[in-house]
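Lab notes, practical 5.
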Amino acid sequence: MVTFFHSERERNTGATSRNGRKRMLLRQSLVAQRRLRRIVASICAIGALLAALITVESSTRMMPALVTTNAVHQGETIDAADVAQTRIPYHMALEDAVTASDAVMGMVATVSIPAHSVVTFSMVQNAPLPQSDATIVDVKLASATDSFPVGSRVALVTGTGCETQQAQESQQTQGKQAAQSAKTQASGQNSAFAGSCTLTTQALVMGKAHVDDMGSPLTPMALPASDALAVIGASGPIIAVQQ
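Output from the prediction step:
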């Protein structure tokens, strides 16, 4: 009888011990799950914070840029007084922006740039370089003075026939100028413009037209010295023709 109760007590004790271990394992599992949820929530919060910081940083990111201090018209040469360095909010569309004033000094505006505008490399080009044997003269054109961008090559044609032009030059010049008149006549004979004289086919537009003291617009052009003499000596109106 004693043995029976003793065995029964041992069985009850073993069952209680097993139940206790199960409850302990269950509590540990619940604690681990809660801890894992807290860790996941913390990671999500950190990720959201990093994303917010990246967004703020990208929206406030600054970049160096060059802006105009005054309006620069098409064909004008850019100098130090026309631009200033500053910093602006970054934008992908402005990756072509000029960042240093030295990069555009002496360059020519290909478009008109309003004051306080960001300057990009697509708005400027290198100033045209005349040939080594060329000279630069101001030419009074009867045609529109702003028809040709800086750097254009044009032919200069006068309405006075080359024979008349040659006769006038022969009366005014001797020696080399007389020989130049013969060259001008030969050029005029090959001209595609009937009754006209082609003074040169190698004129290079060097800058925007400016107005002289008499109010006449003059366009600076580079051309061979011999052709420059013909242009200066022309008595009739001169027009420029795109090459």
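Observations recorded by the TA: The chain has four helices and ten strands. Residues 21-53 form one domain.
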